Amino acid sequence: MTRRSLLLLALLLAAPALPARAQDPFGIRPHRPWRTLHTAHFTFHYPAEMEAWTRSVAERIEPVHDAVRALVGYAPPRRTTVVVDDPTNSANGSAYPFLGAPAMYLWPTPPEPSSTIGSYRKWGEMLAVHEFAHVAHLSRPSRNPLQRLIWRLSPVDFGPIARRSPRWLFEGYATYVEGKLTGSGRPHGAARPEVLRQWALEGRLPTYAQLNASGGYRAGSMAYLAGSAYLEWLVARRGDSSLVHLWRRMTARTDRSFEAAFTGVYGQGPATLYGRFAAELTGKALEVEERLGADTAARGAVVQKLTWYTGEPALSPDGDRIAIVLRERDEPSRLVVWSADSQPESEAERRARARHLARDPEDVPAVRVFPRPLKVLATLREAGGAAHDHPRFFRDGRRLLVSRLERQGDQRLRPDLFEWNLDTRRLRRVTRGAAVRYADPSPDGRTAAGVRCLAGVCDLVEVELAGGRVRVLAAGSPTRAFHRPRYSPDGARLAVGVQDADGTWRVATLPAGGGPLRYADADDGVNRHSAAFLPGGDSLVLVSEEGGIPNVAVLDPSTGRSRLLTQVTGGAFAPEPSARGDVYFLSEHAMGLDVRRVPLDARPAAVAASDPSLVPAVQRPPVAGDSFPPAPLGAARGYGLGPRGRRLLVGGAVATEGQFSTILLGGSDPVGRLGWTLQGSYGERGTWRGGALAAELRRFRPALQADLFYAEHQPSRQDAGSYAPRALDVRYRGATVGAQLLRQFNARRHRYRAGASVGRLAAGDASEVARPLAFGEYAGSYTVHRGSRHATLDVALHGAVGRTPHASPAAGADASWHRTVASAALGVGTRTRSLRARVTHGAVSRGAHAVEHFLVGGVRPPLVDASLLSQRVALAAAPVGVAGGRELYAYRLDADLGLPLAPFYAAHGSRGGFRDPFRVVGAERTVALPAMPFIRVPSLRAQLGAAYTFDAPFAYKTRAYVSVEYRP
Questions:
Q1: Is the pLDDT of residue 20 over 90?
Q2: Domain ranges of the chain
Q3: What was the pLDDT predicted at 738?
Q4: In angstroms, rounded to a whole number, what is the distance separating the alpha carbons of residues 174 and 195?
Q5: Minimal CA–CA distance to 720: which of 655, 651, 653, 652?
Q6: Cα 128 versus chain centre, distance
Q7: Distance, CA of 491 to chain centre
Q8: In the 8-state DSSP scheme, what is residue 601?
Q9: Residue 830 to residue 788: CA distance in whole angstroms
Q10: Lesser CB count within 10 Å: N end or C end of the chain?
Q11: CA–CA separation, 246 vs 251, rounded Å?
Q12: What residues contact residue 818 under an 8 Å CB cut-off, 6+ apart?
């Protein structure tokens, strides 16, 4: 679980510090056919294609509810909403412990066996236990009457545990619960002891202050791994009931901090006891290392020392080249092809070393512990910001089959296959939207075997490489998954990882064209996966967790017997046999993954490190988890417009023109098919006042929008003084209908919008006149990536036609008008720094009413659709009216330097262009978040900044401003 409700609340409150174009954190597509399923305590909403996976979870969710409630000591009295969807084709989930409306979001794609969450009995079961543990734990209400009243009146009602718990506590506790109730999960897998043991041996266990971190290698996992192990250690000292006592003290009538509640249960503070836990863990890790022995050869020879998350290595058929994905903390991923041969010291390096020693004969040359960097023969960088992964050589050694996550236009991410030619460096797309990963090309190069994960079901499939057609070789199910198929050297058979209902990963073989599965390994409860045929085709090399440590092993399929090739203290993953008689693999250390190799004839001592007294430095012995028997379910029904939920929010602005506040009552359903907002605005006379009812129906594509509004604005009476004549004061009421279509891909995004409005407008002291109009808009962007650098071109076009009668028509005046606004922006930068320049030009037809002329200054109208007032140009640092006219010229420069506020320089001119502009310099941050219906939050735009003006009529002024506005 990576996105929690507290994080999203902080995201909203800290909105000015976020980038201006944040992505939808949920990616739900409400236009698809959705279904609803009820149980006693839960309501499931899911796309129709995910029926099988959702029912497999829903039929066991009530026993999960009862078991979690018994262990945690609490469960929310209100029904919990569960949304099932698969936006990124990855394993994840999240929980939102709102006291009034608890919710969970489940992603059905199962994790891979080498993942830290790869050990489970059933993925849906473990995910449901973990996320509902969050809900039950964090939604426990306060028994303090004042606290309950205050939070009941707030827009988001959280309990004291949710507000005060450090990340390690609530993530570690949900992980603790998953282990206690399922007898599997991280507390019983090989990954947790592998990470904790290796980090302890290297002296890199996180300090207490670092437990909540998420930025370093594996740092984000420590809240789960170390947090759950620390809680188990506390329970062993103080008993099973101590955790429930902690939750009771945190929610007591007496208001306490987490530190005080913890100390009251365990006698000392959490940091003090964690220090003791870490010391004991380090001692146990050293004991494991001693038992494993000092045979360094059993750990494999380092081929390349690396850091961060390294991809699985692939060897060319002749063993001369290695393809691998390299990842770094601050740089984009890249796929490189290395020469497999170590590089000798060059003549230039030898001469340089000799010159250095000649200048300083007493200097001591550095000791080389690790091999020299391998020679890079080719590099494939990200395309459209998407990295390539899972490289596999074709038999000719000149081409590679790779996968890449592709955005499907409606925000879904799905892996697709590409063929990379090393001679021409060209990339050819093989599939579109196929969701195939870990594809291995057949020896004849015509097909590839891979795994397709859709709707929570991972099938073993064959892909026709010429046309991209996909055929199922072995069907998966919610309780059967496949992983990483590999062809035999003759192309007749496939080896593949299989996980069935008991959760154990095993290795099976089958005919390459499909047929019955035959398990190749022993049915002894040991996880074995990531198999590949050795060059002779008679044996397999694989990852075996025998003894509780992931190691490389050789398996004889005819007998089911295996022998270890490695004996590492951390973990060994992704074995890849070489034609030269070695096996390459990844070996984990506390900074990342190294590439190592071991000879096929290696025979290390097979020492099992399974002594229960050494937990958590070794794997916890298996235990029987709770039984969650399936219960009959009623029939699902169509989602319709879904159940309604409401939220009360406040907004408004403090700017140069004055101050106003808005109060909003918004409603939505969990998947966002229909969102609406009813808001009112009131403030100083020179600011926006009025009310509006807006709605957006996303049941279809494009989405349909409608508004009813009344707004009045009197810039002649604004707080900073009168810079606009009274004739530009307006009262405006009307209705709008429109349609919008969003399309988003890896490097491109498009927004199309069109609409019409009828309304009545009164300007100055004149009486109301009808103001009908129609508009059309396009906004798009295209991004080019070059390594860590990128360039983005943004284009926006707006056109409107309408009729606004003059109160006293002058000669040549025309009630009809048309207006165009066009802008283009170019941005360049890296992941943390960027520069952006935007130019804008707008014009309205001659003779148009004065209120249709451009008017610069103030904040954006909060109640009226911005497309109806495209002549109003926001500039919060200046009062309304500092520039304007029939034409608009503007440019703006922004420099995002990674600071809370981004410096900018802007100039606005009217018909004379930039000969007499109004210029400002300042720093601000704007964030625009899409609607988040799952937590009942409408789309949000927030801005915070300060600026200095240079020119008349508002020269040499410094103003700060802040605004928050909403749309459905």
A1: no
A2: 32-292, 644-967
A3: 96
A4: 19
A5: 655
A6: 20
A7: 38
A8: T
A9: 6
A10: N
A11: 9
A12: 799, 800, 801, 802, 844, 845
Mind listing the pLDDT tens digit for each residue in 542-552? 999 998 999 99
The encoded tokens of residue 614 equal 């050494």
Q: Give the total residue count for the chain.
A: 968
Token pair belonging to 318: 């002749």
Q: Show Cβ contacts of residue 953 under 8 Å, excluding neighbours closer than 6 positions.
A: 723, 881, 882
Is the fold of 32-292 the same as that of 644-967? Answer: no
Burial (Cβ within 10 Å: 0-12, 13-18, ≥19) of residue 773: buried
Band (13; pLDDT cuts 50, 70, 90): very low
Query: Which 8-state DSSP code applies to residue 79?
Result: P
Task: Give me the sign of the Cα torsion angle 373, 374, 379, 384.
Answer: negative
Q: How far is the first Cα of the chain from the last one, in angstroms, to the nearest whole number?
A: 27
Judge whether residue 8 has pLDDT over 70.
no
Mean pLDDT of the region 730-756: 93
d(CA 431, CA 450): 12
Give how far Cα 310 sits from Cα of 306, 383, 388, Å: 8, 19, 12
Contact predicate 422/398, CB 8 Å: yes
Sign of CA dihedral 42, 43, 45, 50: positive
Contacts of 784 (CB under 8 A, 6+ apart): 747, 790, 791, 792
Q: pLDDT digits over 232-255, tens only?
A: 999 999 998 999 999 999 999 999
Q: Taking a C-beta distance cutoff of 8 angstroms, is the pair 536, 550 a contact?
A: no
pLDDT at 21: 37
Q: Which residues contact 515 (CB under 8 A, 6 or more apart)?
A: none
DSSP 3-state of 612? helix
CATH topology of domain 32-292: Neutral Protease; domain 2 (1.10.390)
Q: Mean of the per-residue pLDDT values for the chain?
A: 90
How does pLDDT run across 681-718, given as a tens digit for each residue?
999 988 999 999 999 999 998 999 999 999 999 999 99
Would you state the pLDDT for residue 474? 97
Looking at domain 644-967, does it have CATH number 2.40.160.50?
A: yes
